[in-house]
Design goal:
With 268 residues, the chain is an alpha+beta fold. It contains seven helices and twelve strands. Strands 7-6-10-11-1-12 form a six-stranded antiparallel beta sheet. Strands 2, 3, 4, 5, 8 and 9 form a six-stranded antiparallel beta sheet that branches.
Length: 268
């Protein structure tokens, strides 16, 4: 299976980049990862980096293809949660670093995803949003009851008040899992932090994926999000994958996390 992948990460108007994202590949199995460290808690950048490191380490050694993708994704997030809690306890003084997380596993033409928090996955099919994950926020619960629409969520002052995240010592967070989704050619998977979806009307910008490379699309979207939310732009991250319908071979991805530090970063 040929695929095209790209990611982008921008600092925005923040002093520190607490987003982390990565694309991992082994033996034709792909894993997309994104974490948005929570700035309202000490060590958000530690939490997001720990999640990337924990999952990368496990992905290197699991037999492929993954036999039980849903169980695998749940295990990745629950183990990352425990690692983040342990990391916080080792600090002096102890802290409670926390992060959101969204993962997507792609193998044999199918995708499975899992998330905790308000980092999202979008499945784009035929130029439209076919799937959007549910945020773990109080505001999303209001949307589920018909009290708010997508635009109201995007601009609501309480949209970042999470009900679940990785790193809270009080509980192992409930992991929301998808069923298997069989991908069709030209489907695009987008995972992103709220720095992207909170700055843009996603229904309007999704057509940017129709006729250009993913590298061009992610660069354009990240720049649009930063420009539209300046001077209060959050960190902005997105990771994308598309089944490749061309005959062009993509360069091999390394099973190492892409570096997403305080510099703007684009990877394709």
């Amino acid at each position: 299976m040929k695929v095209e992948t790209a990611l982008a990460n921008r600092l925005g108007n923040r002093e520190r980049n607490e987003d982390r994202c990565s694309i991992l590949e082994r033996s034709g199995t792909w894993l997309l990862l994104l974490a948005d460290g929570m700035g309202g808690h000490a060590g958000g950048n530690l939490a997001s980096q720990q999640m990337i490191d924990s999952i990368t380490r496990q992905f290197r050694h699991i037999p492929l293809p993954v036999k039980d993708p849903r169980r695998f994704l749940r295990s990745l997030l629950e183990d990352s949660h425990r690692d983040i809690v342990a990391l916080g306890k080792r600090q002096d003084p102890p802290i409670t670093p926390r992060t959101t997380s969204v993962l997507c596993l792609v193998q044999n033409g199918s995708a499975w995803w899992a998330h905790v928090g308000d980092s999202r996955l979008y499945l784009v099919r035929d130029g439209k949003i076919a799937v959007r994950t549910k945020d773990h926020t109080f505001i999303e619960e209001m949307r589920a009851h018909g009290a708010l629409d997508e635009e109201q969520i995007r601009v609501h002052p309480l949209r970042n008040h999470l009900t679940h995240c990785l790193g809270s010592p009080e509980e192992i967070p409930p992991v929301e899992l998808s069923e298997e989704t069989v991908l069709t050619e030209s489907d695009v998977i987008v995972i992103c932090s709220d720095g992207l979806w909170g700055a843009l009307d996603m229904d309007k910008v999704i057509p940017l994926f129709d006729s250009r490379s993913l590298a061009d699309s992610v660069t354009t979207l990240a720049a649009l999000a930063e420009r539209s939310s300046t001077p209060r732009s959050d960190n902005i991250s997105l990771v994308t994958l598309r089944l490749d319908t061309s005959d062009v071979e993509q360069p091999d991805q390394q099973d190492e996390p892409a570096q997403t530090d305080d510099r703007n970063n684009v990877h394709a």
